[in-house]
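Researcher: Please translate sequence to structure tokens.
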Amino acid sequence: MKPISAVLLICVLSVTALSTAFAADFIEPVTDMAFVRIEGGTFDMGDISHKDELASPPRKVTVNDFYMGKFEVTFAQYDQFCDATGRAKPSDRGWGRGQRPVIFVSWDDAMAFAKWLANKTGKPYRLPSEAEWEYAARAGTSTYYWWGDQPGIALANCKDCGDRWEDQTAPVGSFAPNPFGLFDMNGNVYEWCLDVRHDNYEGAPTDGSAWLKDGNERFRIDRGGSWFTPAEEMGSHVRSYHDAKEKKKHIGFRLVMDASSP
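Model: Translation complete:
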């Protein structure tokens, strides 16, 4: 792994100072979940090198404005849901709860959390479409990660990123945010998306919506890499999928909301 250059580090620190200077655009009142308004646009989705079959062929996708959680959903927030609904609380593996991202949650669990929060607040919270997720992760960039093409020490939590949390999750917000002000889009935990599994992007929608037709509905897409996976698996375009009922130690989620809702 190549070390991050001094010039890039200066750029990253500048981005960090700029991004963290802005408060969340919307605070959800039940769990105090912070949301950032993402201005929509058109981007190249997928692997522009055509080397990753699962993320090929790349295509132009247009995404509407939306709000996205500034951080991954935390144990503190998910535990409120469990207390309110009588659900068993997921394990934290002894790493601590609070502001660490919730883990051992299935896609079904994430959907139930979103529905619960929507019912409590009257706002249509949901999981992101895969297109919304990648658009937000790229944050206007076309490189492998938002900061460039090399993993970069201390820029994300992954198996070989060289950070202090290599063998476990990190508290949300422990690393620099991307240019959209979103934290941990690369690394820490994979994040569930709405979309069902497809083996490539042939026939995928280009309007930013979730791809729900003609796929394997047993499996749902998760994105972003984790503390448990190598750096090459947490690129902004890299796709993964798991059984919707599986509860994994390296998968969590974050929520989005349509821009017209707050």
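Researcher: Any highlights?
Model: Residues 222 and 240 are 5 Å apart (CA to CA).
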